[in-house]
C-alpha cells in the first residue's frame, strides 16, 4: 500500500481516500495541561494537611535518639564499644551500664572480615548475656561491579 503525494490542485473523485500523514498532538497537549492544573491544585492540599489546634500538656518531651551502640571487633582481636576500647571480660559490664543509662536499644555488631566465625559468635553471645534482645550485624555493601567496596 503506497501513499501518493500531490499538491492538492488536481480534482479528486468522490470515493478517493487518502490517509492523513500528519500526527495531531493537540488532544494530547490538552490532556497534559488538564493534568498539570489538577496536580498544581491538589499538591498544596496534600502537604498542608488538616489544620488542628493541639492542646497544651505538661508531659516531658521525648528525648532525642541516642548515639547507636556499636560493638566492633577489629582484625587484631581488640573490642570497641563505639570508639572506646574494652577488654572481653569488661564487655558485659560496660553494655549493662549503657543499658541502664540509655535503655533497651538495638546493638550493632561489626567485625572485620578476617575475624574467625567463633569470635563473632562469642561477641554475639556476650551482647545477649548483657540483656540486649535486639542485635543487628553490620556489613559493607558490594559495589555495582560485583567487587567489594573500598573500606572507609
The stretches of 5 or more residues where confidence is low (pLDDT under 50) are none
Fraction in beta strands: 5-15%
Query: What sort of overall outline do the alpha carbons produce when their principal axes are compared?
Result: elongated
Rg from Cα: 34 Å
State the CATH architecture of the domain at 69-137.
2-Layer Sandwich
| CATH topology call of the domain at 69-137 | Nucleotidyltransferase, domain 5
What fraction, in percent, of the residue positions are helical? 25-40%
Mean pLDDT: 80
Q: Report the total helices.
A: 3
The CATH C-level class name of the domain at 69-137: Alpha Beta
Question: What's the multimeric state?
Answer: single chain
Helix-strand pattern? HEEEHEHE
Strand order of the largest sheet: 3-2-1-4-5
Please state the structural category: alpha/beta
DSSP strand tally? 5
Distance between the termini: 66 Å
* Largest sheet descriptor: 5 strands, mixed
Amino acid at each position: 500500500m503506497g501513499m501518493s503525494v500531490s499538491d492538492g490542485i488536481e480534482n479528486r473523485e468522490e470515493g478517493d481516500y487518502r490517509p492523513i500523514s500528519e500526527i495531531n498532538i493537540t488532544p494530547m497537549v490538552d490532556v497534559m495541561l488538564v493534568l498539570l492544573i489538577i496536580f498544581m491544585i491538589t499538591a498544596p492540599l496534600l502537604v498542608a494537611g488538616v489544620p488542628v489546634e493541639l492542646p497544651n500538656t505538661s508531659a516531658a518531651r521525648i528525648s532525642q535518639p541516642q548515639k547507636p551502640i556499636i560493638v566492633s571487633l577489629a582484625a587484631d582481636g581488640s573490642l570497641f564499644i563505639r570508639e572506646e576500647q574494652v577488654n572481653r571480660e569488661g564487655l558485659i559490664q560496660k553494655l549493662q551500664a549503657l543499658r541502664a543509662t540509655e535503655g533497651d536499644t538495638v546493638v550493632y555488631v561489626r567485625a572485620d572480615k578476617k575475624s574467625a566465625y567463633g569470635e563473632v559468635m562469642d561477641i554475639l553471645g556476650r551482647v545477649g548475656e548483657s540483656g540486649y534482645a535486639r542485635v543487628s550485624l553490620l556489613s559493607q555493601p558490594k559495589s555495582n561491579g560485583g567487587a567489594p567496596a573500598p573500606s572507609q
